[in-house]
Structures are given as structure tokens and as C-alpha cells.
Amino acid sequence: MDLHKKKGHSAEVAKKSVNELQDKLFNSNDGFIQYQALLILFEMKKKDNMASLKLLYQLTQKKLHSAIVKCQVMRLIKKSLFENTAIDQKTARLFLSFIESKLNKEEESVQFEAAKTLCELYEVYGAVIDVEPPFQVLTMLASQSSKPVNKYAALRVMNRIAS
After folding, report:
1. What's the CA gap between 153 and 139, in Å, rounded?
2. CA-to-CA distance for 115 and 132, rounded, in angstroms?
3. Which of 105, 132, 106, 104 is nearest to 119 (CA)?
4. pTM beyond 0.90
């Protein structure tokens, strides 16, 4: 019997795939697997705002192991805050707190992404976001980072804020 002829089978396969992806995202210690699962899940749920927000909420409550996953979650939060006007203030505050928590005691790439995200959100939300902590992180990265690319990236964001 062909798969496309069997009623309800495709919905069942999709649901099973989502469950497997969520299991990999939330329970894997491999950052690459988490990253791939995150991208696929978010792509599958991108048309459903509530499902996307629920996934992001769950991720903010979970300890993430990989720097690239943390950065991608912050990018997805920023995208959701820009595009989804129906986000309530409690959820927005939770998302902003998650991003702010990544400014300290994280890898340089995560700190940079958090500072950049907060600065970009500041341009839209204004006084709701305190731009001083991200600016301090950018200043620290520009002056103390051992990687020239981090120095350059921090200076670019700082220049955008200043102009």
C-alpha cells in the first residue's frame, strides 16, 4: 500500500518526527544534534506562532550545552519579538531575561550574540531595555578578546549604537 493512500499516516509520521526531534533537542548532549533539531523544529513550526513561542519558552527553561544553540535561540527570540506583535509582556520579559543572562559567564561568541541582540532590540523597544550591560560586554570584547574577529564585530555593533 502506498503511503500517500493510507489516510492519517502522514500526520502520524509528522507527529512522530516532531517528537523525535524534540527528544534530540532537549535530551542530547551533542551540540550539533541539538542545533540541527532546533533548526528543523523551528522551520516546521514557523507558521504557528504559538507553537514557536512555546518551543522558545521551553528552550529558555532548559540548560543548553552548545554555544551555537544558545546563539541560535537568541536569534530566534529576536526574530519572534520583531515579527510577532501578539507576544505578551510577561513572555517578552522572560525572553529578554534569558538573553541578559547570557551576557556573563559564557563563551565569547554567546556573550557577543547576547549583546548584539539586546542592542538591536533596544533600537525597537527603547527604554524597556537597558543598553549599558550589553555595551560593557562589547567594550570588554573589543579591548580584551584574543580573537581579532570578536574585536572587530564588537566595534561594528558599538559603532552602530553610537550612530
Report:
1. 11
2. 10
3. 132
4. no
